[in-house]
Amino acid sequence: MTDFSEEQRNEREALESIYPDSFTVLSENPTSFTITVTSEAGENDETVQATLKFTYGEKYPDETPLYEIFSQENLEDNDVTDILSLLEQQAEENLGMVMIFTLVSAVQEKLNEIVDQIKTRREEEKKQKEREAEEAEKLCFHGTPVTIENFLSWKAKFDAELLEIKRKKMKEEEQSGKNKLSGKQLFETDHNLDTSDIQFLEEAGNSVEVDESLFQEMDDLELDDEEDDPDYNPVDLDSD
Q: Which pLDDT does position 211 carry in this prediction?
């Protein structure tokens, strides 16, 4: 008859010696403990971590232990799902043998793979950003190729903007015309306008200077005298 408790005790002692810094007993009956597994350091010393919780059943190792991810760091939801699937697979394959070390080792390798995937994913993201930056730079220098479609789209937008500018200008001119007063309105608004010229002349007094050279004496002007014209005939005027 298999002594399950003996096998469980021996495995527990072995695990405590293998994982002295990460092995923690949670309870004695049933035997329950955790083992924290950390990946190798990735880029920028980044790591992922999972604390696995195991609980022995009465017939372990002829039955699989209870297991769960007690806590984790830097793992995505899909990573947690993958780890649980891995534990299930390994437990079924090692049924009948003490298996905790095997399960923990499998999770350790999986965590290392996840770190490598994170590194690869970040490298791809970096390359993608570089490609996008290059494409954006090309567009800045070469512009967008002109096609019938984008030209018509640009022209429709341009015409709409031009029409809006004209409307605003017409509205401003119309508003300006409404605010401009007619001559009659000016006089009605300021009654001093009709006496402003007289007031100016009165204030000027004798200081107004006239340039007499602009005028000539009547005697100096050569005016045609109709009577001196030999062809002049007053009768013709009467006949008119």
A: 61
